[in-house]
Write a structure and sequence with these properties.
globular; 1046 residues; glycoprotein; mainly beta; ER membrane protein complex subunit 1
Length: 1046
């Protein structure tokens, strides 16, 4: 009995110790939520006055604690959904979300999607949960109005009246009321009466009151004086719940509801004295909608309205049925509002002058007194789009919230920056990994007392449990992971030297590491020390994050990575992956000769689960429109504008980046860690399509889309390399004319450094004829970590076909019965066909292709199985395994031609899965020896793995129940990238989208360490093993011989 009790006690102690140390030993992850480019800011009056409600155009709603900068929660909606309107009060947040086929991408192309819908989500913001949903398929909600628990939802043909508590709803159809409307706007919801403004098909305007219980018209008032013109854009809004504001570039109209016999008061005024014909000369009616809701309505206050006429805005005071002109707001100013200590809204306008933001209230126009003068931080390059201020009664201080057109969101406390969030990180386009382990300072090794460590863990655990007794344990861990991340905060007040000290980087090692490059640097103009920062919040965040960084065991092998990222709005960030510390920020738009374009109303993401795509490099994907249900034979690359790879290694510590405008190219070389500009040059009338970096002579050979050649000598050095020996090849895929051509760069002169004799020769041309290109893919193989031998399960050796110039493409051709898809795999240098296959007739788009090392991975949908297929093509050489001793002893077998196209073996297998995938790629390790796993970002927003080397079965069904992301769900994730760590066993993983997520993964489930590693000792042990094996072999032979003789 005592043994049983002792056994149970040991089990309990083990469980307790496991729970105590669980947080320390689960795989490290760094998870931070992003909001995106903010389009609505609404202060919340309750919740101790510390919260604001935010939304972004790309479909996120967040409740932000503005004192900490951390979202209380972020509600993420479906892919490619947009938020049209956001409303919030002390109880609820209501978001109008839609998806239609009238949106444009960043290139101005309409995204056609037959799946049209809209819905309204109602959130309980006190308890942070979704209260109710009003969803409509094939319809777009025009507007909504809420009063207490009742909501009125407006459509073109009806109004729906619902209850947000029980989700009940009923409809009133305009056809039953004999109303023929082309536009409607809800004015007022009072008792059982709904008052609307509407325009009929004859372009006359009406004010109508409807009894929502009896579903009949009470009053119908035609505005005889006002008839609209369908060749002009009009904007409609409601002021103070009783005045309808209508305006265009020439006239401002207003209609006030009254209790008099006529029921309304109408008037108008001229706001532009220029000739009417010139004003409306270039008027464009988008999508045949000439009447639109006015976005300026959100800035109305009890005394003032603002209208936007394009080049400027006009502020008016409305009093006693009259419009009084107040101010003309130019493009250098923005309009917002300020909630004062009496909880009343005042209209404010902000002007950017000499790194100061001067805020004035319309209530103080006469004395010209500034409400506040804000000091801008140096991470902000552009003027603002939104400004909202509130008075915090608890601290008796003003807070201001500003959104800039580079997507940064900045909070000011009184006159100074409190913190700044870089929300453009929600729109990452491609990235580049860099490891700075060789620059780390020599650190002192610590010895830890295990017994004391357990006691400390126990004390820490008990203390945390007392403070948060009612919270689930896993929930605590998830919260701590997100709270520890420095994403997406910009620590603008730190100099680059201070950030390098935090990362323990030795500046002397940095200078010695790349002497030539460091000697050519210019002064860093992007990151200067700011000594005016006055708050401790960001300092405490840094301290907490870097304390964890220094103590966590995984920081030794996973904490030396910096990532460069490029966003859709051409901003480059460098950040430390483990902590999320942003090192610097570079604006690429100025190199393109243009200003910042706002992401407020631009689609920067495309549906990766519905469209065809291929990954080309650095996490960059080419997105092709899926033509499965489209009669148009022409294919379109949605994001072809930035097809050129942004980051390419120039030297050990620097990268080269190419920016392209409509007519010119801009070459920029900068230091990876410091952000210092090393070289920059603009090349006019030359659009770089391909380029080669000659590292020995620090030169760049650029080729444009017309196959012209230009040589750029970075340090004024002449090319002293033989171009012909370099074997510089490239290929050009023309998707519109259906051909693929290969070229080689040669020097036709006898002098190897004669730059004037460089020319191109065409090595091959592939004409696809009547087939249409569905998509194409390029190899993303990394030469430095390619392991050329595959070790099979029976310990035999197979040789991989090594070629980082493999290209693959899928074509389609129409037959009488269906569409035939064919897969081709081609050598990009010689143009020879490696492999081709007509896909099964049930194979349907979307097609996704990735080429890595000797694998071509094709993902598609099988219509017959109603499943998704991963078709794995492995390219091997038809070379027999000579055996280990033969390789060592035989001179003939030492060299193997790994580019031998005549002796190729193709291995194929299929994996059948239930999920569609957004992205997939292989694990990467330091030497490339560890077995490669295929990592999959599923449509469930989780990352799982697939070991494609284990199964010998040709068709294998795979069910996913284990995930690398564990309990984390990466909502609206757009992609991920895997990269090597300092350990051969471990792969680093970074995912981007609405969440920035970092973790690590061991493909083989094993773990090696670099702690206390001694190479000489290992070598000595290996020699001992060989000697022992040899001695045992000799002894066994002698023993066998002795037995036979005896």
């Amino acid at each position: 009995m005592s043994i049983k009790i002792l056994f149970i006690a040991l089990i309990c102690i083990k469980i307790i110790l496991f729970k105590i140390t669980y947080e320390e030993h689960i795989p490290y992850s760094n998870n931070a939520s992003l909001i995106g480019h903010i389009n609505f800011i609404i202060p919340i009056s309750n919740l101790i006055n510390n919260y604001i409600l935010l939304s972004s155009f790309n479909g996120n709603v967040a409740l932000l604690n503005y004192k900490t900068g951390k979202p209380q929660y972020v509600k993420t909606h479906k892919e490619d959904e947009k938020i049209k309107k956001l409303y919030g009060n002390e109880k609820y947040a209501i978001a109008l979300i839609y998806k239609n086929n009238l949106e444009k991408d960043i290139n101005g192309i309409f995204i056609n999607d037959e799946n049209i819908y809209s819905y309204i989500n109602v959130y309980n913001i006190v308890n942070s949960y979704l209260l109710s949903v009003f969803e409509y398929k094939n319809e777009i909600i025009e507007d909504f109005l809420i009063k207490d628990e009742q909501i009125v939802i407006l459509f073109n043909n009806r109004i729906d009246i619902g209850n947000i508590i029980d989700n009940s709803i009923y409809s009133i159809y305009f056809k039953e009321l004999n109303l023929n409307s082309i536009y409607l706007k809800v004015i007022l919801l009072e008792d059982n009466i709904v008052t609307l403004f509407y325009v009929d098909k004859d372009l006359y305007c009406y004010i109508i009151s409807i009894d929502k219980l009896n579903k009949n018209i009470i009053n119908l008032n035609k505005i005889e004086e006002l008839r609209l013109n369908n060749k002009i854009n009009y904007y409609v809004s409601v002021y103070n719940k009783n005045v309808v504001i209508i305006y265009n570039k020439k006239y401002l109209y207003w209609i006030e509801l009254t209790n008099e016999e006529k029921k309304y008061y109408y008037n108008y005024m001229i706001i532009n004295n220029n000739d009417e014909e010139n004003i409306f000369k270039n008027e464009i009616i988008e999508n045949n909608k000439f009447i639109k809701g006015d976005e300026m309505e959100q800035w109305y206050t009890s005394n003032y309205i603002v209208i936007d006429v394009g080049e400027y805005k006009l502020i008016y005071n409305y009093f006693d049925k009259k419009m009084n002109f107040i101010k003309k707001v130019t493009n250098g100013e923005i309009v917002g509002y300020y909630v004062n200590k009496y909880n009343k809204k005042e209209m404010i306008f902000a002007k950017d002058e000499n790194n100061k933001i001067i805020i004035k209230s319309t209530n103080e126009m006469e004395n010209e007194k500034a409400l506040n003068i804000l000091n801008k931080s140096n991470n902000i390059y552009y003027n603002g789009e939104i400004i909202v201020g509130i008075y915090n009664s608890e601290e008796e201080k003003n807070y201001y919230f500003s959104v800039y057109n580079d997507s940064s969101f900045t909070v000011y406390k009184e006159n100074n920056v409190f913190y700044s969030r870089e929300e453009s990180l929600a729109y990452i386009d491609q990235l580049y990994f860099y490891n700075f382990q060789h620059l780390r300072k020599n650190s002192i090794k610590h010895s830890y007392n295990i017994q004391l460590q357990i006691l400390n863990d126990l004390k820490k655990y008990i203390k945390n449990k007392i403070t948060s007794f009612n919270k689930p344990f896993i929930e605590e861990i998830v919260k701590k992971k997100e709270d520890s991340s420095l994403f997406p905060f910009n620590f603008f007040y730190l100099s680059i030297e201070e950030k390098m000290n935090l990362l323990n980087i030795c500046n002397k090692k940095k200078l010695k590491s790349d002497v030539l490059i460091n000697s050519k640097k210019e002064t860093n103009i992007y990151d200067k020390k700011n000594t005016d920062y006055k708050f401790t919040m960001m300092n405490s965040m840094l301290e907490d994050s870097f304390t964890r960084f220094s103590l966590h065991h995984s920081s030794k092998y996973a904490g030396s990575s910096v990532i460069l990222v490029s966003t859709c709005n051409n901003i480059i960030f460098a950040f430390h992956l483990f902590t999320g510390l942003i090192l610097y920020k570079i604006d690429g738009n100025k190199f393109q000769g243009r200003g910042m374009f706002s992401l407020k109303k631009h689609l920067c993401s495309f549906s990766m689960s519905k469209n065809n795509w291929s990954e080309i490099e650095n996490g960059k994907k080419l997105i092709f429109i899926n033509n499965n249900n489209n009669n148009n034979d022409s294919n379109i690359i949605l994001n072809s504008k930035n097809e050129l790879h942004v980051f390419k290694k120039f030297s050990k510590e620097s990268v080269i980046t190419i920016f392209k405008s409509d007519k010119s190219s801009y070459i920029l070389i900068f230091d990876i860690l410091y952000g210092d500009i090393i070289f920059e040059k603009k090349i006019d009338s030359f659009l770089i399509q391909n380029y080669f970096v000659l590292k020995k002579s620090s030169s760049i050979i650029a080729i444009d889309n017309l196959l012209n050649i230009k040589i750029v000598n970075v340090f004024n050095n002449e090319i002293d390399e033989d171009i012909n020996e370099k074997h510089l090849f490239f290929y050009n895929i023309n998707i519109s004319q259906n051909y693929i051509e290969g070229y080689r760069l040669i020097n036709s002169s006898q002098k190897k450094n004669d730059q004037n004799k460089l020319s191109l020769i065409k090595t091959y041309s592939i004409n696809i004829n009547d087939e249409k290109l569905e998509l194409f893919a390029k190899s993303i193989t990394k030469k430095n970590i390619f392991f050329p031998i595959k070790i099979n399960k029976d310990a035999s050796i197979s040789y991989k076909y090594i070629n980082d110039n493999i290209i693959s493409y899928i074509t389609r051709i129409k037959s009488k019965e269906n569409i035939i898809y064919t897969l081709y795999v081609v050598d990009g240098i010689s143009g020879s066909l490696i492999y081709s296959k007509i896909l099964d007739k049930y194979s349907k788009p979307p097609f996704h292709v990735v080429i890595n090392e000797n694998y071509v991975i094709l993902n598609y949908f099988n219509e017959n199985l109603n499943k998704y297929i991963f078709h794995i093509i492995e390219i091997l050489l038809d070379k027999s395994d000579p055996g280990f001793l033969s390789i060592i002893t035989s001179k003939k077998e030492k060299f193997v031609d790994l580019f031998d196209e005549q002796k190729i073996v193709i291995n194929e297998k299929n994996y059948i899965i239930d999920h569609n995938v957004k992205s997939f790629n292989f694990t990467e390790t330091k030497r490339g020896i560890t077995n490669k796993h295929l990592l999959l970002l599923l449509d469930t927003n989780k990352i799982s793995s697939l070991n494609i080397t284990d199964d010998q079965i040709k068709n294998h069904y795979k069910y996913f129940n284990q995930f690398i992301t564990h309990t984390d769900i990466l909502y609206n994730a757009k992609g991920f990238i895997a990269n090597e760590s300092l350990l051969e066993s471990t792969t680093l993983l970074f995912s981007w989208g609405n969440y920035l997520y970092f973790t690590y993964y061991q493909p083989n489930g094993s773990f090696d360490t670099i702690e206390n590693f001694n190479f000489l000792l290992l070598l000595f042990l290996i020699i001992l093993v060989f000697i022992g094996t040899y001695l045992s072999y000799v002894k066994r032979v002698n023993k066998k011989l002795y037995i036979e003789w005896s």
